[in-house]
Design brief:
about 270 residues; mainly alpha; two-stranded antiparallel sheet; 2 strands; about 65% helix
Length: about 270
């Protein structure tokens, strides 16, 4: 029953073993990363980790935050850009998926160069790990879409709904990143409680809109891998937003208790 409903929204062909394995890996690994954030084991690029980094930093290779962030996103952007040449004439849906991924990572690179303010360093080992993860997941999503060529479209077409959701997600994410950047002047390393936009309701509206962006890509794609990756990303960002709210509560006595972590009025 569940599978029959699901098959109305995704491509019907049984995916290769590689794609099936990547679906499981994406959900499980990202969910575990989200759980790690909740219990206090943070990836080595966050403000949470930087607070205790002096205990480990002597043995690690450091990068400036700007350089590290560029390394996170550039390979995935180049992979999505190259796929236009590697997979020409794949149809309108493939073009939409590939374009959405390219725009997503291009936006991130623009934010790294012109929007974000930086207050710490990044560790090379973590940068390489996260960068590979972004690149591999992007390439897998594109390859999974390529494999749909020649198969019938899903009975329920979500791609136009997906375009709208993606545009709302990427716009909302950019706007709240912009608000975050305005909290500090250049050279200012002090954290402040964000205000404006949905920050008055949740502490991580940029994560909320990032999830929406990937929901949009999944609806455009309608492949099992795209939905699996989005589910895993949602689990991870739920954990990270929970940790972010907990951090703000510990650092700011006047942090408003009614401000949730990720979903207004709910979580």
């Amino acid at each position: 029953m569940v599978m029959s409903v699901l098959m109305r929204f995704i491509y019907p062909q049984p995916p290769p073993v590689f794609i099936t394995a990547m679906c499981v890996i994406s959900v499980v690994s990202l969910a575990l990363f989200g759980l790690s954030e909740i219990i206090g084991k943070h990836l080595q690029y966050s403000k949470f980790w930087n607070a205790d980094s002096h205990k480990f930093i002597a043995k690690q290779i450091k990068l400036s935050s700007r350089t590290g962030m560029l390394m996170l996103y550039a390979p995935a952007f180049l992979a999505s850009l190259a796929s236009f040449a590697l997979f020409p004439r794949q149809g309108f849906r493939f073009l939409l998926v590939n374009s959405a991924l390219t725009i997503h990572f291009f936006k991130r690179i623009l934010e790294v160069l012109f929007i974000h303010k930086y207050s710490g360093a990044m560790i090379l080992d973590s940068v390489i790990t996260i960068s590979l993860s972004y690149c591999i997941s992007t390439a897998t999503m594109i390859y999974a879409q390529h494999l749909t060529q020649g198969f019938p479209e899903p009975p329920v077409d979500l791609k136009y709904v997906g375009i709208v959701i993606f545009l709302v997600g990427i716009s909302g994410n950019f706007y709240h990143h912009y608000l975050l950047s305005k909290l500090r002047e250049e050279g200012d390393k002090e954290y402040k409680v964000p205000k404006g936009g949905l920050f008055d309701l949740v502490i991580c509206p940029h994560y909320f809109f990032e999830i929406l962006g990937f929901v949009g890509i999944s609806c455009i794609s309608q492949t099992l891998y795209a939905f699996s990756f989005t589910l895993g990303t949602t689990f991870y960002l739920m954990g990270r937003s929970y940790a972010t709210r907990k951090w703000y509560l510990s650092k700011f006595e006047d942090f408003p208790k009614n401000v949730k972590a990720l979903i207004p009025y709910v979580f």
